[in-house]
Design goal:
mainly alpha; about 70 residues; 4 helices
């Protein structure tokens, strides 16, 4: 019975830390990412408008090949 009370007290303590800590965090956040591509608009549009070209420029395709193989 004593171990159960200690376990419940520990869980309640961590839950209180989460709720009190969460009250001090900002309510909103902003994540922004940008990149500069040194190419003509027509070249960029040609590559991103054709789904068959996706594997060539996608950042995820190399990571997937590393994981899947």
């Amino acid at each position: 019975m004593k171990a159960l009370k200690i376990t419940i007290a520990i869980i309640a303590f961590f839950a209180a830390i989460l709720f009190i800590g969460g009250a001090y965090l900002p309510k909103t956040y902003r994540l922004k990412r940008s990149i500069v591509i040194n190419a003509k608009d027509s070249v960029i549009f040609k590559n991103i408008s054709n789904f068959n070209e996706f594997i060539k420029w996608s950042a995820w395709s190399k990571k997937c090949n590393d994981l899947c193989n």
